[in-house]
TrEMBL record:
InterPro entries on file: PROPPIN, WD40/YVTN_repeat-like_dom_sf, WD40_repeat_dom_sf, WD40_rpt
Annotated membrane topology: Peripheral membrane protein
Cellular component, GO annotation: phagophore assembly site membrane
Major location category of this protein: membrane
Protein name listed in UniProt: WD repeat domain, phosphoinositide interacting 1
Organism of origin: Oryzias melastigma
UniProt record similarity statement: Belongs to the WD repeat PROPPIN family.
Subcellular location: Preautophagosomal structure membrane
Gene3D superfamilies recorded: YVTN repeat-like/Quinoprotein amine dehydrogenase
Region annotation Disordered: where it falls in the sequence: 422-442
Superkingdom field: Eukaryota
PANTHER family xrefs: WD-REPEAT PROTEIN INTERACTING WITH PHOSPHOINOSIDES WIPI -RELATED
Amino acid sequence: METAEGAGAAGEADEPRPRFGCASFNQDSTSLAVGTRTGYKIFSLSTVEKLECIYENEVPDVFIVERLFSSSLVVVVSSATPQRMNIYHFKKGTEICNYSYSSNILSVKLNRQWLVVCLEESIYIHNIKDMKLIQTLVNMPPNPSGLCALSINNSNSFLAYPGSATTGEIVVYGANTLSTVAVISAHDAPLAALTFNTSATKLASASERGTVIRVFSIPEGLRLFEFRRGMKRYVSIRSLSFSLDALFLCASSNTETVHIFRLEQLEPTEGGEADTWTSYVGRMFSAASSYLPAQVCDVMSQDRAFATVHLSSSAHSSVCTLVSIQKLPRLLVVTADGQLFIYNVDLQDGGECELLSKHNFFDDHGSSEKGSESAGSEQTICPPSYAATAALPASRPITATLTGYSEDGGAKRGEVIPEHEFASGPVCLDDENEFPPVSIQR
């Protein structure tokens, strides 16, 4: 998530620069990576009470930081060199490789097979095992926010990105087949958010208007659900995230409210429809549909939020995720002022979620507050910084170049991706051998 900009315009040099650059949960939401103007930190999310910092690095002005599951691989992009992506083995303090591109990097997505880099008008797909360039998608409509989504399922590896700069068209690209599998006309307005569920059978989307969230089947592209976030005002949806079982979907925006929607289809009664108040209202409006405007019928058929959160933080821009911590359902929300809020979610009755704790990333001593009433102080533990502890690589990295390729496989006007620097040898991504080692070819 790229948080709200805090720097002033030209001539306002006295205004302090924002401390917070970005925040992202890893693919299974077991850790949180936070980028700041002085470096980045990786936190474990194993408990509600304590926010444990497991790594800290002093790379300046980080605006993209992504970790691959629970491995040691982390991708970092700094605003000091926005066209360059560095890939590190953070536990060993070594650089695996780095790439430089023809324009600024806007987002990076990872799964166990692919590493995807999104520029404004092109997308690069790399094999994450050896970092080779597999495919380049070029001549795309302008995508200034770098919006894209990559599924984490190995057998169903899909990439979704905007197919238009003026409408909410979604292109679903098969990362395994390297071909387009579906084009979905999702919204009238341009896209603002995309996310896959864990099994890559569902894709959720929101437009720049931020009033309606839709869920589609993948790869068919059929509309499964439609949720209304609100009607009074347009908002900017910052993030969408499915729960692990894909029965719930959370959405955060630039407002103080976070919504959770239920995707469960209710069992029909003997009459053939779910016996609920909403189904009764739905049948009533269905009977009157021939007399009502189409827009009114659409609004009445959209489901409302199952549960909500009203943030106490003054910085509303946020990223959210639904996880299970210690076998209990939790909603995690990160705000642009550098706080993590953890809420309990009542999966039976929904409603307003209960605040369990909140943590501040920037408190020098670390802080944790429990609940909305009582507050306690616990230290957020961080190990020594990289600069103080990491050993330098034994030898200088080897430099190589790779030719860029277009979608049809031909050379892209002879362009190269300069500065493909490798580490001195194979690097294991995880100390527990959970993931295969990176195979470095000399």
